[in-house]
Amino acid sequence: MSDTDTARYSLADARERDDADPLAAYRDHFAVPDGERYMDGNSLGLAPDTAVATLERVTDEWKELAIRGWEAADPDWFHYGEHLGDLLAPLVGADGDEVVVANSTTVNIHTLIGTFLDTLPGTPAGPDPSADPPAVLVNDLDFPTDHYAIRAQFRQRGIDPDEQLVAVESRDGRTVDEADIEATLAERDDVGIVFMPSVLYRSGQLLDIDRITAAAHEHGALAGFDCAHSVGAVPHALGDAGADDEGADFAVWCSYKYLNGGPGATAGLYVHERHHDATPALAGWWGNDKTTQFEMRHTYDHAGTAGAWQIGTVPMLSSAPIEGATELIREAGIDRVREKSLALTDYLIALVDERLGDAFSVGTPREHARRGGHVAIEHPEGYRVSEALRDRGVIVDFRPPNVVRVCPAPMYTRFEDVFRVVETIREVVESDAHLEYDPRGGGVT
């Protein structure tokens, strides 16, 4: 390493970067664990004081108003999922009535995939049940729950998921090439839904939502996305995605990663307004039109907004923190959050290149347009490295076969934290400290 590089990749340099960071003050809002370098915000974001405040407000409303809180709270609980949808809509590039906070991510995949299967020929509720069944196009690097839910929806309709769940194969085991999605659409005429992640959970690759949406629509398919690893860190324009800004058809995401809504926070979903007349596959009373909901009819009168895809009563204590947490992101501005995220991951990648040995590699695309918010650092003993890091106060996670995921979440991570994390990795491996740990067993990683 040259003298110039030594100066560039030093603790002093990291602190200079922090001094120039326009978002540095936001760290003070978060409960950063003492003595730790927290790099797991892509799995669970830290607790901001604003989230705690809105949770406490709703708890106080529960104490003071009891059942009257459904109407008398401010904002009222009855419309709270829609209220949060209005707050989140700018972060995903949609109109307020196209977004709602409801259910869990997996439940939202079930209801949206089921809903749109029921609009296609070849399904029992579709326009031509006698037609050949539609396929859903996914990829072989997806988070498992996506496939579980889609397979279940196929089975419920008497469709063989082994035949109709079509996975685009990765060329390198890390990334998915959009050209391969396009090629599969060109090869098969039965794809009714393309369902892809915005960011691959293992490698951190950011997929091109505009390009995938355009390709799906060109071939007569619907375009849906699992945005769990991007909402809150990457700006989206779901409502304008694709050719001629026609918009993606639907999307889902969780609220406990970059949105910092807390463990098990209520998830979110987006449905383009052109589909608001579709009947949700998993109907529930909370998706009923609000003006007739308490008439208690036994026939379902679904809302004419994304709110129709709510199922059960809004879980207030799992939803309230989202209001406060996203206040900080809206205040900071999602574009500035993205700018800092890229700067942090640029710095992390450069430090891995400069300060770690040849045994390490970066599995995340280096181009900004193809990178989400975390970096996949690969090492043959990734699991044992991750365990050694945790015991040294560096909180990361491991994903098989060899990935240590490191996420410098932009709302509370400093450049100094990134520098010290890489130094700890270097010290662990140079001293062979990771070899003191057993190979991977079970449990949460």
UniProtKB/TrEMBL annotation:
The gene is kynU. Catalyzes the cleavage of L-kynurenine (L-Kyn) and L-3-hydroxykynurenine (L-3OHKyn) into anthranilic acid (AA) and 3-hydroxyanthranilic acid (3-OHAA), respectively. Homodimer. It is an enzyme of class 3 (hydrolase). Keywords: Hydrolase, Pyridine nucleotide biosynthesis, Pyridoxal phosphate. It catalyses: L-kynurenine + H2O = anthranilate + L-alanine + H(+); 3-hydroxy-L-kynurenine + H2O = 3-hydroxyanthranilate + L-alanine + H(+). One of its GO terms (molecular function) is kynureninase activity. This is Kynureninase. The lineage of its organism: Archaea, Methanobacteriati, Methanobacteriota, Stenosarchaea group, Halobacteria. It comes from Halobaculum marinum. Belongs to the kynureninase family. Pathway: Cofactor biosynthesis; NAD(+) biosynthesis; quinolinate from L-kynurenine: step 2/3; Amino-acid degradation; L-kynurenine degradation; L-alanine and anthranilate from L-kynurenine: step 1/1.
